[in-house]
Amino acid sequence: MKVFVTGVNGQLGHDVIKLCMQQGIECVGSGSSDFYRGVNDEVSNASYIQLDVRNKETVKQVLGKYKPDALIHCAAWTNVETAEAEENYERVYAINTMGTENVADACSELDCKMLYVSTDYVFGDNGTVAHKADDTNYAPLNVYGKTKLLGELAIKDRLDKYFIVRTSWLFGQNGNNFVKSIINAGKKFGKVYVVNDQIGTPTYSMDLAQLLISMMQSDKYGVYHASNEGDYISWFDFTCEIFSQAGIKSKALPVKSENYTCTKVTRPFNSRLDKTKLTENGFSSLPDWKDGLQRFLSEANLLA
Q1: Which of 22, 81, 200, 250 has a CB 3.0–4.6 Å from the CB of 186, allowing a cystine?
Q2: Beta partners for 192?
Q3: Where are the beta strands (DSSP E) in 19-80?
Q4: Residues contacting residue 4 through CB under 8 Å, at least 6 positions apart
Q5: CB count in 10 Å sphere of residue 218
């Protein structure tokens, strides 16, 4: 099997192509021009090309040249804060929606499997019950969620051989994420305020990457939810566990979203994802999020 991975600059794409290489899977990675900033040699030595998914003809030509059997589409504008800026909206839409349309069209022509990584943000604040994978009660609250949802709908319109995998609260070694940011804040300040009314489960990108690779080697198409197992928690709970495992002495203090002034972006209170469809279709659940966090902190040398 030949796998094409977009967005290898990011946390997830970086780990997907790394695992493909380790497992002897023929793979090609694509990303933007700053790919080599901060990535390790193991991934830098992969077959890599620069690809702007916004360019329909280029996407068609590149995928037509490599003729992958499967494509894992990790490329996205994932910075929720900057996505809300009016001056960025056209670019966010072009990458998250139109870019996905371009990739899906090329996959359709090649009869190539496509896996699209999506987000809990497509749902909004629909109660306190975990969202099932096949729920369609969409209600995105921000630009990021809206453009990712449009990407989902584009794939469903164009392909039969697709996987859509929604995840939440992703953290990994390559790039910035909440875990790294909160550790830095904890080292700098004696106390940090963290919201305690947004509920979900974290996802270690390396664990998710392995699942995506397993999916692409199957024909069990459809929409799935995937995050690490364990209790549903708030960002405050997550911070307390991060500080405990990392040996950070700073104190975490809970605050409601309405009183948290560090962001102007509206985020969902309910990020609970029902992941039973994974095991029902023979896929392995991801490990407990505390276990994933421990491995991440160790591998990233963030333990005190």
Answers
A1: 250
A2: 252
A3: 26-31, 47-50, 70-73
A4: 27, 28, 29, 30, 63, 66, 68, 70, 71, 72, 112
A5: 12
Count of CB atoms within 10 A of residue 303's CB?
A: 11
Q: What is the C-alpha separation between 294 and 245, in angstroms, rounded?
A: 7
Please say whether the beta carbons of 155 and 274 come within 8 A. Answer: no
Active-site pick, 93, 116, 144, 162 = 144
Helix ranges (H only) for 45-177 are 56-66, 80-83, 89-93, 99-110, 143-158
Distances (CA, A) of 231 to 96, 117, 197, 228: 30, 23, 15, 10
Contact assessment for residue 103 and residue 115, using Cβ atoms and an 8 Å cutoff: no
**Spatial contact of 34 and 95, defined as CB atoms under 8 Å apart:** no
Along the 304 residues of the chain, how does pLDDT read in single tens digits? Answer: 999 999 998 999 999 999 999 999 999 999 875 544 444 445 555 578 889 999 999 999 999 999 999 999 999 999 999 999 999 999 999 999 999 999 999 999 999 999 999 999 999 877 899 999 999 999 999 999 999 999 999 999 999 999 999 999 999 999 899 999 999 999 999 999 999 999 999 999 999 999 999 999 999 999 999 999 999 999 999 999 999 999 999 999 999 998 887 788 899 999 999 999 999 999 999 999 999 999 999 999 887 6
Report the sign of the C-alpha dihedral through residues 121, 126, 132, 136, in that order.
Answer: negative
Q: Are 39 and 13 in contact (CB under 8 A)?
A: no
The two structure tokens encoding residue 78: 């994932």
Indicate the DSSP class of residue 256. Answer: -
d(CA 232, CA 238): 10
Active site residue 144: yes
